[in-house]
Records
---
Amino acid sequence: GQNIDQPTEMTATEGAIVQINCTYQTSGFNGLFWYQQHAGEAPTFLSYNVLDGLEEKGRFSSFLSRSKGYSYLLLKELQMKDSASYLCATMDSNYQLIWGAGTKLIIKP
Amino acid sequence: TAGITQAPTSQILAAGRSMTLRCTQDMRHNAMYWYRQDLGLGLRLIHYSNTAGTTGKGEVPDGYSVSRANTDDFPLTLASAVPSQTSVYFCASSESQGSTDTQYFGPGTRLTVL
């Protein structure tokens, strides 16, 4: 079957670092996406990984281990505007996205 | 650029009534998608279209229909709404389907069926 797991909610402090984990089991694999979704808004693209390793993009980095079915999103120097839900999604063998339920990140001053 | 627009922003609908959710994109993307987002669940694909004139069923297509008469528009119709269709509906597009192209999302339509 297809399954994506990520924590429901996390809390972090402004200026700190937070790691949001995502584990997956999918039929076929064509990469993993991370999206950010502020409350009441549309998801917006953050990153895409298809090969193992770390991809860094400013304050945000994304890691993938295909053998472990595992990814994480690392957010550094947290800002209040980073308070949002972070959605993990894998692309299956039919190039359709399978979505996790999202992790709500709460940033405290 | 507008990107993807959806209308209406929100709607309250009586059960048994029909409704069409509108979606328009100005990026000339070939592929378009309709998702629903419910609390505690991931986005679920309702229908998709690889190119104008073609449509396909996603994970949860029952009770919904779509059409793709041209590249820009991808309306979603609920023929006879039921309370379980209460959800937030997102339209998305990508340059092509069958690839790893990024999907871009519209602002969503919040639908309540009573």
---
Amino acid sequence: DTGVSQNPRHKITKRGQNVTFRCDPISEHNRLYWYRQTLGQGPEFLTYFQNEAQLEKSRLLSDRFSAERPKGSFSTLEIQRTEQGDSAMYLCASSSTTGVYGYTFGSGTRLTVV
Amino acid sequence: RKEVEQDPGPFNVPEGATVAFNCTYSNSASQSFFWYRQDCRKEPKLLMSVYSSGNEDGRFTAQLNRASQYISLLIRDSKLSDSATYLCVVNLSGGYNKLIFGAGTRLAVHP
């Protein structure tokens, strides 16, 4: 385990469909974060887990979005009834408890809603 | 006002040039500061942390001015491989290490 793994790398879906992304963090990291990045912008915070507990959700995360981390290991991010505005790169990151060295990001899942 | 603001860029510089990026943050209680580098269509990667006393890593020097809420990154002797987007990142205070990213400044180094 050398890093954060995200699947799939790319996803093209029709508007209105549901999609689910998976993130496998670095095994010893207990904190996991989801971010969204659109062209020309920095990553925007979506949600955060410490172990299996979801401790914060951004206002960006509408009720169509749900994230889970059932056993404190991998996490999933589901988007229901996708809209074209959901097209973005979805980045997962993990860190240790102190996090003083910043996050380690996965390669991201690029979502295109057509 | 955005929580983290950066020079809009892009910066187009010749190889060997020195280039400086600036960043300001709005939350005076911010505790930790970083510069991340992001290559086109790749994930952000930690370039360096920024310490109050200033710190250097090879050709890269980071400075922090807490009073002015200002962060800088200086790149000396630019290389073609330095071409990327540089993201200024701030860790809000509190317990759980939430990072807030600026929009990034794009650097293009040309021969």
